[in-house]
């Protein structure tokens, strides 16, 4: 979180986090999305991992 502009902003941020939400600066959010979208490990939709070790119930 950047430095709050007013005490009200600080209170709102604390309440937001207390309720379980995350508080990230927009620049951090953009970087996270960029990294996630450009991962080398990214699999196309519908691709499958090795499921051979799973039991029928786990599938």
Question: What's this entry about, in short?
Answer:
With 59 residues, the protein is mainly alpha-helical.
Rounded to an integer in angstroms, the radius of gyration calculated over CA atoms is 20 Å
Helix content: 40-55%
| Global mean pLDDT | 82
Q: CA-to-CA gap between the ends?
A: 41 Å
Number of helices: 2
Shape: elongated
Beta fraction of the residues?
A: under 5%
- Structural class by secondary-structure content: mainly alpha
Region (Disordered): 37-59
Descriptive overview:
It is a single chain. The chain is built from 2 helices and no strands. With 59 residues, it is mainly alpha-helical. The model has no long low-confidence stretch (mean pLDDT 82). The longest helix is centred in the first third of the chain and has 12 residues, at 7-18. It has a domain at 11-37. It starts with 6 loop residues before the first helix and ends in a 22-residue tail after the last helix.
């Amino acid at each position: 979180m950047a430095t709050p502009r007013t005490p009200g902003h600080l209170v709102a941020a604390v309440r937001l986090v207390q309720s379980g939400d995350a508080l990230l600066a927009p620049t951090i959010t953009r970087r996270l999305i960029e990294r996630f979208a450009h991962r080398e490990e990214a699999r196309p939709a519908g691709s499958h991992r090795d499921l051979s070790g799973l039991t029928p119930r786990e599938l």
